[in-house]
């Protein structure tokens, strides 16, 4: 306290930095809801807390796993496993992404771990694009609301989009692009100088005081890093679900042709709907005249490029990687809608 009083020039930068954090944005958004729409405040907060609590199990598992790998030095083995196998990894990542039961925000902890441990960005992008689109529960819900052809089509689109994104990134990386995909901020040194080739893993890391300290540091810093961004993502989701009327969406994406497909893909970005809510809504929209292609584009665009998902992606990677993710997601949604409409 004495130092701050004697050096007032240090106070404002500290306050200014705190105001730019995700926590400050969350507080500002919730205060705005409390002032402007107090009746809906509890609903917004409850929605965000429940969603974050549900994701918490994935965060905990991912952070524990990453901390363990870093403390043991196992990232050496992980890094070596990816050498010379990029094409195979792209295929596996796209397929696994279509089977993993993670939404666009729940997958972020695993993406952070993969990038931090040196996985190729091409394979990570394949997983990143395919994972929000389909999982076993979503497949059944989609089939129940829209039929098995639509559900199977969405699963195929998920894998195809992952492959499209993975090989696009691979082609660009051969020309020198995306050499350093992560942002400058590195949680707990995950993206430091990299593992030493002659280092050997110590699986019983608790036997080493130095590695125990590393484990705690990794766990705390990575956990807080992911928690703050996912908390912001779910507050944004709660606001969007509460204040973007479904009727407005129905008025914009009706009709036939390519234009409704493009419009549906773009509208799907801000109109975030999770994979369990979207199929019943799209069933009603299709009964009102929405084409199957527009419905597919809306679902793909909404899952891959929703505001909560983009907020989480933005927290991890540099702007050029974020722009590529967004471009691949939207273009893939449009192409998927056009192809599905033709089929």
UniProtKB/TrEMBL annotation:
One of its GO terms (cellular component) is plasma membrane. PANTHER family: UPF0718 PROTEIN YCGR. Signal peptide: none annotated. It is a multi-pass membrane protein. InterPro entries: DUF318, UPF0718. It is found in: Cell membrane. Belongs to the UPF0718 family. It comes from the Bacteria. The chain crosses the membrane at residues 12-35, 47-69, 90-119, 139-169, 224-246, 258-282, 294-316, 322-340. This is Permease. The keyword ATP-binding does not apply. Keywords: Cell membrane, Membrane, Transmembrane, Transmembrane helix. The lineage of its organism: Bacteria, Pseudomonadati, Pseudomonadota, Alphaproteobacteria, Rhodobacterales.
